[in-house]
Amino acid sequence: MVEWGSMTKKKKLIISGIIICVILISGILFFNRQRIFFQKKVQKTTEVNASPTTKEDVVTWDDPAGFSFQYPKGLTVDKHDEDTENYAHVELTNADHKGRVIVWAKDTTATTIAQWLKSEKGLKDTTSIDTTLGGNEAKKIIVKEPKKKQITATLDEDIVVIVETELDDEEFWQRVNDTIVGSFSFSTSKKDETAGGASAANEEPPAEADEEESIE
User: Which of 8, 30, 79, 169 could hold 97 in an S-S bridge, CB 3.0 to 4.6 Å?
Assistant: First the structure.
């Protein structure tokens, strides 16, 4: 082992310089560690708060056919008063986004939504999954040709209610579709009210007890 005193002056300077550099670098890292870690934490916090969630403005549509739903503000609504064949034909469009949503209410002889789907010739080869619409059992159908659509359909007594969304501008109209389907609800049907009134009218009033007691 070479003793320190036997080393040349040049070697002593090199070793001393290395030791001094190590001490300086260690000191710099030690005294700046809090500032470095603090900057990282601040950066992460800023990224999380950079895009706060905003609530979308919506409008409520209350239809005479016995249902209601909400849709994003800014859409144009055409209720197609000229359509005398269907109970409801509500079309929602936007001039800046190609596509649309149509909410239908039509007569049907089907007793289940699965039966209705089988009876629709244009939907036989489509993919469908079970879902709900307004609390009722429903089917969500994906149509790919000739135009991409998403259809959500359910039965309300003997009426089929359909939310048909044309996904030309898919990101925009998918958001509109989800808002409509998620907020969809049915009101008390006129048939239920009529049936309840008729039943009440046909009921005989309860027999009154005889006020006079028979004397033997």
Answer: 169
